[in-house]
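Customer escalation, tier 2.

The customer says the design service returned an amino acid string that "doesn't look like it belongs to this structure." They asked us to rerun it and document both sides in this ticket. The original structure tokens are below, unchanged.
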């Protein structure tokens, strides 16, 4: 899995990534934090376009000059962003909304706050042309996520940013998940209510479906002191011209599996599963595509 060098035109990537994160995202957020104290609005930044900038810097591939239409990257790659930073939280006592940097509920004063962590990626397939695009024409999906690594400790001073690539022609399970959404969910909803557009496919970070799709991590960094003096530390980075391999896909935590699945696949005693282990795991019944009579041509996933 490798993008042609003809599309790689951005160099000095690590330094540009650091500068972009500070100049375009985290330093401007400091001003939003101050205004948030007055307006009581979230200091969250819209993630769509900044993530596309970031994806270009990570992959070394320029954008397709398309805005919200057309190719996200010049090589035809699709970029998906998920931002779990500055989500609005909920008071468990009175159900009021609580901003992320508020330590107690502004309505009842309770410190019993449910910190939200449920943002996800969305994949839209509304026709067989879009299905063919997702499975056969888009060379890779670039999934970017921003989240708090220490959310459970109510530590909101650092953010982790990770980017993963999934190549549909090589990821058999990802292909099946997309097909399942279109045939089992989208078309079935259209049959029941033709006037209502079904919701897109939810693709949850760090879920069973996520690991089953064998994502390859290409970028990992921590942004420290985000509420005072942001500092970017890059932990790992796969250069744009380097070959991607499913052998280096993300390890699946065994505790994601059901007990009967662990027994079925003889995974007892393991904490994490590699590519060879994941290959053995089948889609769950709710994720299998039903047979369909409509003609649909697609290329076979590569081994």
């Amino acid at each position: 899995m490798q993008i042609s060098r003809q599309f790689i035109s951005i160099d000095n990537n690590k330094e540009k990534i650091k500068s972009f994160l500070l100049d375009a995202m985290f330093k401007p957020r400091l001003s939003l934090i101050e205004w948030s104290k007055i307006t009581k609005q979230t200091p969250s930044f819209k993630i769509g376009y900044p993530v596309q900038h970031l994806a270009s810097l990570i992959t070394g591939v320029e954008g397709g000059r398309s805005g919200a239409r057309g190719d996200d990257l010049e090589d035809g790659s699709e970029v998906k962003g998920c931002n779990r930073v500055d989500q609005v939280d909920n008071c468990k006592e009175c159900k009021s909304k609580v901003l992320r940097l508020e330590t107690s509920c502004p309505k009842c004063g309770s410190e019993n706050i449910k910190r939200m962590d449920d943002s996800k990626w969305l994949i839209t397939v509304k026709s067989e042309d879009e299905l063919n695009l997702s499975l056969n024409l888009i060379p890779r999906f670039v999934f970017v996520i921003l989240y708090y690594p220490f959310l459970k400790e109510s530590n909101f001073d650092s953010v982790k940013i990770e980017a993963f690539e999934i190549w549909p022609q090589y990821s058999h399970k990802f292909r099946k998940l997309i097909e399942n959404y279109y045939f089992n969910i989208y078309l079935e909803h259209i049959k029941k209510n033709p006037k209502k557009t079904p919701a897109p496919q939810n693709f949850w970070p760090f879920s069973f479906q996520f690991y089953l799709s064998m994502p390859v991590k290409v970028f990992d960094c921590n942004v420290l002191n985000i509420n005072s003096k942001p500092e970017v530390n890059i932990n790992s980075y796969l250069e744009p011209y380097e070959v991607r391999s499913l052998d280096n896909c993300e390890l699946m935590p065994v505790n994601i599996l059901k007990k009967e699945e662990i027994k079925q696949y003889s995974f007892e005693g393991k904490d994490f599963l590699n590519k060879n282990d994941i290959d053995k795991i089948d889609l769950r019944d709710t994720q299998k595509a039903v047979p369909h009579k409509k003609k649909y041509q697609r290329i076979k996933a590569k081994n």
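Tier 2 assessment: The sequence is consistent with the input. The CA atoms of residues 84 and 147 lie 5 Å apart. The helical segments are 13-39, 48-59, 128-137, 172-192, 208-212, 259-264, 275-279. Sent an explanation to the customer and offered a walkthrough call.
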